[in-house]
């Protein structure tokens, strides 16, 4: 299973590497006096977020919001009792189907 790069983390990684570079010297530089290059390191994370195309998902791929009488009833009971379910915490895309009894 391949790990995909998350371009939204690039600015955070660059900031972290800049702070780290200020404290640390590169042992591979001539004489060990050169600092680490944060810009080069952030490019390993993938393209900048602005470089990615902003297209919407096709209708067949979009997840519809959970709905139904049984779902609404269970949801309101959970709020009244101030409870959270594993399904809600994990943001399960099938919560509406499960809570409606598979209907």
TrEMBL record:
It comes from the Eukaryota. InterPro entries: LIAS_N, Lipoyl_synth. Coiled coil: none annotated. GO terms for cellular component: mitochondrion. Residues 58-92 form the Lipoyl synthase N-terminal domain. Keywords: 4Fe-4S, Iron, Iron-sulfur, Metal-binding. The keyword Oxidoreductase does not apply. Residues 1-26 are annotated as: Disordered. Pfam families: LIAS_N (PF16881). GO terms for molecular function: 4 iron, 4 sulfur cluster binding; lipoate synthase activity. This is Lipoyl synthase N-terminal domain-containing protein. It comes from Monoraphidium neglectum.
């Amino acid at each position: 299973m391949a790990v995909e790069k998350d371009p939204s983390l690039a600015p955070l990684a660059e900031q972290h590497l800049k702070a780290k570079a200020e404290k640390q010297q590169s042992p591979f530089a001539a004489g060990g006096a050169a600092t680490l290059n944060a810009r080069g390191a952030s490019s390993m994370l993938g393209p900048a977020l602005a470089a990615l195309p902003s297209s919407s998902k096709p209708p067949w791929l979009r997840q519809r919001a959970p709905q139904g009488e049984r779902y609404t009833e269970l949801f309101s009971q959970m709020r009244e009792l101030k409870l959270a379910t594993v399904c809600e915490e994990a943001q399960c895309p099938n919560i509406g189907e499960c809570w409606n009894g598979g209907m």
